[in-house]
Amino acid sequence: MGEQGVRSRKKGASGSGGAGAGKAAKPESHLAMVRRARRINRELAEVYPYAHPELDFRNPFELLVATVLSAQTTDLRVNQTTPALFAAYPTPEDMAAAVPDKLEEIIRPTGFFRAKARSLMGLSAALRDDFGGEVPGRLADLVKLPGVGRKTANVVLGNAFGVPGITVDTHFGRLVRRWKWTEQEDPEKVEAEVAAIFPKSEWTMLSHRVVFHGRRICHSRKPACGACPIASLCPAYGEGETDPDKAKKLLKYEMGGYPGQRLSPPPDYPGRPAPPLGAG
């Protein structure tokens, strides 16, 4: 979206910018918040029609493994690591039988590699022994696997099985609090309160859109408010850079003209693929 569109959206917001602008604004009712939240979702759908999980995967097992590896690191680093990992261990049976030292060496770039290797071998053995070598498509089964919590389970269900779910990662949590959709800090409580705002059919794509926005524009320390297409709907407008030219320099990934996080992005992704490990 160009600067013209961003400016026009801001202009329509109570005079000077965000949803909180104006004289002694009355507290927002729950109904008004729900309407604003749903409008934000619609706006983000227009801005990011290509929103998708930013982990490379070809099947449910690869997505499960990649999501476990993504803890405390970037999706980019995971995507740069998994080609060698899945070349060596393409199935749960292969990974369950891995030599720990060799597995650890492959996943070392993702950090916490010893704990992650134990989780990967443990979940792979459980898939082999309890689920016929297949990733289960039920939340109750997924969260029993070593290293798999509710967030990871929702990622797998939503993107490998088409089961709607809200994924509360760091970006999602801080944006929905910034937008006053919830005040909760606990991920499960955040998930429950946000889920109550939207139809179930929207949950998975909502998660992608919010995370995309958090990674590209609505940064944690310095959000690019002056380049934000939903500035007029944001009660936190002004916390970041409001000058359009300066804000534009803060944009990341395809929004800023840089490569994305996936080495193999979907066909409709408008940006450049990420470089492989060691390519810069």
TrEMBL record:
Compositionally biased spans, kind Pro residues: 264-280
GO MF annotation list: class I DNA-(apurinic or apyrimidinic site) endonuclease activity
Record key words, sorted: 4Fe-4S, DNA damage, DNA repair, DNA-binding, Endonuclease, Glycosidase, Hydrolase, Iron, Iron-sulfur, Lyase, Metal-binding, Nuclease
Keyword Iron belongs to the record: yes
Domain HhH-GPD: 69-216
Cross-referenced InterPro entries: DNA_glycosylase, Endonuclease-III-like_CS2, Endonuclease3_FeS-loop_motif, Endouclease-III_FeS-bd_BS, HhH-GPD_domain, HhH_base_excis_C, HhH_motif, Nth
Requisite cofactors: [4Fe-4S] cluster
Keyword Transmembrane tagged: no
UniProt-listed Enzyme Commission number(s): 4.2.99.18
Region of interest (Disordered), residue spans: 1-30, 256-280
Reactions performed catalytically: 2'-deoxyribonucleotide-(2'-deoxyribose 5'-phosphate)-2'-deoxyribonucleotide-DNA = a 3'-end 2'-deoxyribonucleotide-(2,3-dehydro-2,3-deoxyribose 5'-phosphate)-DNA + a 5'-end 5'-phospho-2'-deoxyribonucleoside-DNA + H(+)
Residues reported to bind [4Fe-4S] cluster: C218, C225, C228, C234
Protein function: DNA repair enzyme that has both DNA N-glycosylase activity and AP-lyase activity. The DNA N-glycosylase activity releases various damaged pyrimidines from DNA by cleaving the N-glycosidic bond, leaving an AP (apurinic/apyrimidinic) site. The AP-lyase activity cleaves the phosphodiester bond 3' to the AP site by a beta-elimination, leaving a 3'-terminal unsaturated sugar and a product with a terminal 5'-phosphate.
Family: Belongs to the Nth/MutY family.
PANTHER family: A/G-SPECIFIC ADENINE GLYCOSYLASE/ENDONUCLEASE III, ENDONUCLEASE III
Name of protein: Endonuclease III
Taxonomic placement: Bacteria, Bacillati, Actinomycetota, Actinomycetes, Kitasatosporales
